[in-house]
Structure formats: structure tokens, C-alpha cells
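Please check this.
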Amino acid sequence: MRPGGYGRRIPRIRGWHRYLHGRMMPGSLPVERCQLNGHHSGLDGAGMKQFRRVREIIKLTVYGRDGQVGTVQELYFDDQNWAVRYLVVRTGGWLLGRDVLIAPIAIERIDDTDVSMRINLTKEQIEQAPSIESTKAISRQFEEAYYKHFRWAPYWQPDTTLWGSPAPYLDPSAMNLDDPLLSESPEQSHLRSSTDVTGYRIHAEDGEIGHLEDLVVDDEDWIVRYVEVDTRNWLPGKKVLVQSGRIQQIDWENQSVTMSLTRHAIESAPPYDPSMLITPDYEVQLFKHYGKAA
């Protein structure tokens, strides 16, 4: 099931993304069989893309159960596993332009026909949720208050999904919202802003090569699958995709990203055109290329 509780838009081939993103498991299908099963398009029956650049996501207008909420401004992702934890939505006049967080668990669907996102929350639920300050990092204490407000089981609790669970562990009528949630996580979470990381310098194993232009998100699983690297510092105009699993370190203080690849491996990768679809065939090309570079 998708985060919002709705069925998958695209029939998944077992093991497909685990194979392509370095997590091949026993029983998964090899690439050759994936290609033979007809999974050739990044679109579903309604023409909706499976992968989206953050620059596309921040164009979306968000609608709740009772009307327009606002527009997406940026994403917060986990720098440990690249899961998208929250979307920052700037509300309209109904909430004085306040920024609010929307977790993927609340997302029902994205509609490309009117460039919108539908969520399963009301304006009242959003208005009463803990507010954020854009200049501060999101702490674990804030996240605890956020999940308590919506009565969701948080993602760091055992036996939940990557985004948490819409059903709390305790019956809401018996749930004491003053009690802290059980958490073994550190005081400060690993959440980072997509706005902050954009423009960071890219360091290969043997030197610098370009900068991070954008993040590419799987809008079904809400995971950052690729980073878009602009190598124009060395190769004018060329852009390539690199799997997020190839990132060794993000240095937030020095604004740089270190990858477990050589400059040649990055600059010789299949070219990427942001206007094109990321198809399974293209993903196979990337996997084969970076597999050779391993």
C-alpha cells in the first residue's frame, strides 16, 4: 500500500528496485526477466510519473478534505536512508501563510492534470498541528508532538512502515498525549532540507566534479532514489543521475557531497535530460554502468 493507504499505481516487479538500488534479495528477479515482463514505462494508466524531481514537486498545489491547503515549498529527507519524511507546505490566507509539515503517510495521490496533491487531512487538523520555524532543524521532540497530534504511530517505532502507521499503538480514547513516545533515537534527528543540499559540491574519489542540481524522488515509495549531478564545471551542459546509495558522506558544514565513484565513472554515465522519463530501461543502463564502476 502507498503511504496514504491507497493501492499502488504501478504494478511492481518483485525485487526491481532492490536490484537497481543495491539491495538485491534472494528470490528477486534478475534484470533480464524484469525487461521481459513488459515494465517499460515510468507512467501508470493515468499518465502519472513514478519519479519526480524536487523542482516538480514544489509546483504542486495541496488540497485537503475540505479545500485548498497551500503549495509545496521543499522536502525534508532522512540523510541515513534517504526516506522523505515531510513536505513543507506554505498555507494561504486561511492560516496567514504559515508553513506546515505534511508526512507522506497523509498523501492520497498526485494529479498531473491540475498539478495538485491530495491529502487525507482537514484544515482544522493542519491548523492545530505543531508549527515549525523554517530557520530551525526539526528535532525529535517536535516529531513526537507532530505524530501525537495526528495519533499516528511514528516511523521510528518497531513494526511500522518507512513513514509510520496511520493507526496508533494505543486506542485514541486511552492515549495520554502528555506521555512521551518510546524512542531510542538521538535528540536531534537526521532530517535535512532539499533546499539546503541543492548546489552542494560533488566530490568523487579522485577530485571535485560539478554540483548537486536536484533530487529525484520515487513518488510512490517517497524515497530519494537519485541525485542529479550537473558536471558543467568540467563538461559543459552535461547532467547525469547517480544512485543515492553511492553517496558516502554529506558534509553539511562545508556544503559538499562525497561519492564512492571516480570522476570518470560520473562523467561517462548515461546522460540525463530532466524533461525525459526515467524508464526501467534507463535505470538498467545506470545500474550496469555504475556496476562496472564498483
The radius of gyration is 20 Å. The first strand starts at residue 51 and ends at 53. Confidence is low (pLDDT under 50) at residues 5-49, 169-187.
